[in-house]
């Protein structure tokens, strides 16, 4: 029964469907984007990373993410959305019959890779589509990494074991930074690099990547990975006591481990790991570098008045800003003695204010963005 329904749905959606995939964005009336193809072409032509379909009482609203801002794009009739959603489910190999539970999937469209997430609310199904980047996007020019971060990668190359932590909020670019670093390490010499990812965001040639469906698998998979003699392990986010302990043990037994954690700043990252049950002294003995990163919005040339280029947001781009702490015997003793101000005045600590001041002087950010950043890291 299920296969017949799916076959009927495919026939309905794909038979006699012709689309001009190469029409220009300006020819599309964004207020009435009503087909899957039109919506996807709008995403591609406007360099949009995320599309949100939000089910409301009488319609479905489409939003997109632009430089961290959520912007309304269009509205769909419920019947229009049902047709689009069914097509997304089929292309993503998501069950269209038993669709009450949250579901994830992926599909390709015009040689671009997209990730899909579905969840129900009281008015219907919400859908988020994210366009994934490729390793071709992982260039210094595209990522706009500051010199402070690039210099720190040279320090990473000097170590053969230990723990590297990236901290920051969701969507701050932690996974992208890790992928960039892995690519740089692979350029140096042949290494066995194994990653655990939920979900997989980049295909990295030369790395052995393991995609998991839920975090309950992470601990057992990491235990098995250790038997495969890796040089470098990328474990993804540390969320539980058990996984935190195993991550630290992996780094203490001769492996080079890269992980992430949600924290407001580099010192808060250490506190978070302590709260997960890690011994502070052992942790500091094993840590090599802690990063905290998040984005700042770059002013558009319209001076925040809003124009077509910046989608009337006043901002034309986002770039990452980093806080960096190198862990060595000196910084370890200062942290154990709670002498944080002395660390901040040392050469082993890179304040995000260095980059923020530079951007402010260059006129790329305003004082409002500067102050919001400082507040967000607990400054």
CATH architecture of the largest domain, by name, is 3-Layer(aba) Sandwich
Give a count of the beta strands, DSSP E runs of length 2 or more. 14
Instruction: Indicate the overall shape.
Output: globular
Q: Which residues sit in consecutive blocks of at least 5 with pLDDT less than 50?
A: 1-6, 8-29
Secondary-structure-based class equals: alpha/beta
Order of helices and strands: HHEEEHEEEHHEHEEHEHEHHEEHHEHH
Report the major sheet: 8 strands, mixed
User: CATH class of the largest domain, please?
Assistant: Alpha Beta
Share in β-strands: 25-35%
Q: Roughly how much helix do the residues carry, as a percent range?
A: 25-40%
Spatial strand order of the main sheet: 9-8-10-11-7-12-13-14
Give me the number of helical elements: 14
CATH homologous superfamily of the largest domain - what is it? P-loop containing nucleotide triphosphate hydrolases
The N- and C-terminal alpha carbons lie at a distance of 60 Å
Give Rg in angstroms: 23 Å
**Tally of domains:** 2
CATH topology of the largest domain: Rossmann fold
InterPro entries: P-loop_NTPase, T2SS/T4SS_dom
GO molecular function, one term: ATP binding
Family: Belongs to the GSP E family.
Keywords: ATP-binding, Nucleotide-binding
Please summarize what this structure is.
It contains 14 helices and 14 strands. With 379 residues, the chain is an alpha/beta fold.
């Amino acid at each position: 029964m299920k296969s017949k329904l799916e076959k009927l749905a495919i026939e309905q959606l794909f038979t006699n469907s012709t689309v001009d995939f190469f029409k220009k964005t300006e020819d599309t009336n964004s207020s009435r984007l009503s087909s899957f193809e039109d919506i996807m072409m709008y995403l591609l032509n406007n360099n949009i990373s995320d599309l949100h379909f939000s089910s409301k009482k009488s319609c479905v609203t489409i939003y997109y993410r632009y430089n961290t801002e959520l912007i309304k794009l269009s509205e769909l009739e419920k019947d229009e959305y049902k047709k689009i959603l069914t097509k997304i489910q089929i292309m993503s190999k998501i069950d269209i019959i038993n669709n009450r539970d949250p579901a994830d999937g992926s599909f390709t469209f015009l040689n671009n890779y997209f990730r899909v997430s579905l969840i129900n609310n009281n008015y219907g199904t919400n859908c988020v589509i994210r366009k994934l980047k490729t390793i071709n996007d992982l260039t210094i020019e595209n990522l706009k990494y500051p010199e402070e971060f690039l210099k720190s990668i040279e320090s990473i190359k000097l170590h053969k074991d230990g723990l590297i932590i990236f901290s920051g909020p969701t969507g701050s670019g932690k996974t992208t930074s890790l992928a960039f670093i892995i690519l740089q390490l692979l350029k140096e010499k042949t290494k066995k690099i194994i990653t655990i990812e939920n979900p997989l965001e980049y295909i990295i040639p030369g790395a052995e990547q393991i995609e998991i469906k839920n975090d309950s698998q992470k601990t057992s998979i990491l235990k098995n990975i250790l038997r495969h003699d890796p040089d470098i392990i990328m474990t993804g986010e540390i969320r539980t006591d058990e996984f935190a302990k195993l991550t630290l043990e992996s780094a203490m037994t001769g492996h080079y481990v890269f992980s992430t954690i949600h924290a407001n700043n580099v010192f808060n990252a250490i506190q978070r790991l302590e709260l997960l049950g890690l011994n502070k002294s052992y942790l500091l003995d094993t840590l090599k570098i802690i990063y905290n990163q998040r984005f700042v919005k770059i002013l558009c040339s319209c001076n925040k008045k809003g124009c077509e280029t910046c989608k009337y947001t006043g901002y034309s781009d986002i770039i990452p800003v980093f806080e960096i702490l190198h862990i060595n015997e000196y910084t370890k003793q200062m942290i154990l003695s709670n002498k944080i101000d002395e660390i901040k005045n040392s050469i082993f600590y890179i304040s995000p204010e260095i980059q923020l001041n530079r951007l402010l002087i260059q006129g790329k950010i305003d004082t409002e963005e500067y102050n919001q950043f400082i507040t967000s890291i607990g400054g």
